[in-house]
UniProtKB/TrEMBL annotation:
ATP binds at residue 109. It comes from the Eukaryota. One of its GO terms (biological process) is positive regulation of defense response. It is an enzyme of class 2 (transferase). It is found in: Cell membrane. Its main location: membrane. Residues 12-37, 423-433 have a biased composition (Polar residues). SMART domains: S_TKc (SM00220). The keyword Nucleotide-binding applies. It comes from Ceratopteris richardii. The keyword Kinase applies. This is non-specific serine/threonine protein kinase. Its EC number is 2.7.11.1. PANTHER family: OS07G0668900 PROTEIN, SERINE_THREONINE-PROTEIN KINASE PBS1.
Length: 443
């Protein structure tokens, strides 16, 4: 499930109370903190469900309520936490499948009282998921802080995690197809965009990885596990200084070295997840050959040679993917994985590119056999007919003006030409989508 960089969570009173938070958020944090520290909630009696609601407000969002449960209720929902109900295990503790008295199926995460993560991360998780709501974030139904027990109750995600669906497939389970992978990538990016651009103050997720992306019916992705989330910088601040926490293989290099956390740290982690979706390789896999244990380290030299792009596609796809789509998806991943945080795109630009890619339906039959031509994914005469050169040029200029996918800082880079080509291609995706939408409106 990944290794933490640190033995404990980095949580200070200021984590939820910086200058950008609303007074109601501070008040809610204080109230809930007092409750978790006391280890006891007011109840009508030990057998009845707690009807108390925590009503909180985050920025300009609507008021919501998180239900509180007794330990007895959640034990009954999971058949006393029997092994047959166990569906996962992570740094927080074990996750069980359960059913509430009203018949609702839920996932119940129980804090490991001997584990490294404790009340502070429990508090952060409850606050974040109570205050933030989006179709691509998992829904928190309620929580339990009964005595020394700490449990979280979520909506049940029927397809498990992205990690489950990508790796170690059972013989009768089909691998994810290209269309589904791009849909998952676009949805996860939208969840991250909500945290970065819509939440006020912004939220840095800090632990984006394939095991934290849960999948519902139709492979609809939702981000989960917010125990390490931090409120992002506000005002003139450019970063948040914090103890290094996260999962090895997904952590941005500048954060790992300096402890300076920014929104672009999440963009790097997203690039690793996108690369996992494209290649079918784990972020860290010690079973592979020497030099291939770390996914990003393996991919970096391949990013520099377009002829090697087809080698990066997951063999489980069986060649059933659009060649141009593969090149464009790899271009987006490469930009997210830039070592310099300032050179990475904004998550909003990533959403635009991936939304376009996910809308381009791939016919598995039509793309089941690829030619051996290792040049551009589209013949030159076809590119000329479509005016792709002009499109890419205008796309790159637009992205540069808005601080998006193309960055002028690369002008001095030794492999500037190749990187510019990749950036132009990804910019063309966004520009093409805008032009299509404009044509539709004019029509």
């Amino acid at each position: 499930m990944g290794c933490r960089f640190s033995k404990g969570p980095d949580f200070k009173s200021s984590s939820l109370n910086n200058d950008g938070t609303k007074g109601s958020t501070r008040s809610s944090a204080s109230q809930l903190s007092n409750k978790t520290c006391s280890g006891k909630f007011k109840t009508k009696n030990s057998f009845d469900s707690k009807k108390e609601k925590e009503t909180q407000k985050y920025g300009g969002s609507q008021r919501i309520a998180a239900q509180t449960f007794t330990f007895k209720e959640l034990a009954a929902a999971t058949k006393s936490f029997k092994e047959e109900c166990l569906i996962g295990e992570g740094g927080f503790g074990r996750v069980y499948r359960g059913r509430l008295d009203n018949g609702q199926k839920v996932a119940i995460k129980q804090l490991d009282r001997n584990g490294l993560q404790g009340n502070r991360e429990f508090l952060v998780e409850v606050l974040m998921l109570s205050l933030l709501h989006h179709p691509n974030l998992v829904n928190l139904i309620g929580y339990c802080a009964d005595g020394d027990q700490r449990l979280l109750v979520y909506e049940f995600m029927s397809l498990g995690s992205l990690e489950d669906c990508l790796y170690d497939l059972v013989p009768d389970k089909e691998p994810l197809d290209w269309n589904t992978r791009m849909k998952i990538a676009a949805g996860a990016a939208k969840g991250l965009e909500y945290l970065h651009d819509k939440a006020n103050p912004p939220v840095i997720y800090r632990d984006l990885k394939s095991s934290n992306i849960l999948l519902d019916v139709g492979f609809h992705p939702k981000l989960s596990d917010f125990g390490l989330a931090k409120l992002g910088p506000v005002g003139d601040r450019t970063h948040v200084s914090t103890r290094v926490m996260g999962t090895y293989g997904y952590c941005a290099p500048e954060y790992a070295m300096t402890g300076q956390l920014t929104l672009k740290s999440d963009v790097y982690s997203f690039g690793v997840v996108l690369l996992e979706l494209i290649t079918g390789r784990k972020a860290i896999d010690n079973t592979r050959a020497t030099g291939e244990h770390n996914l990003v380290a393996w991919a970096r030299p391949l990013f520099k040679d377009r002829k090697k792009f087809p080698q990066m596609a997951d063999p489980m796809l069986g060649g059933r993917y659009p060649t141009r789509g593969l090149y464009q998806a790899l271009a987006v991943a490469a930009m997210c994985l830039q070592e310099q945080a300032a050179h990475r795109p904004l998550i909003g630009d990533v959403v635009t590119a991936l939304t376009y890619l996910s809308s381009q339906t791939c016919d598995p039959v039509a793309h089941s056999i690829h030619t051996n031509r290792l040049g551009s994914p589209t013949p030159r005469k076809d590119r000329d007919k479509k005016g792709s050169g002009r499109l890419e040029e205008s796309g790159s200029k637009r992205a540069t003006r808005h601080g998006g996918l193309r960055s002028p800082q690369y002008q001095g880079s030794s492999d500037m030409r190749l990187k510019d080509q990749m950036r132009n291609q990804a910019s063309a995706i966004a520009n093409s989508q805008r032009e299509q939408e404009g044509s539709a409106r004019r029509g």
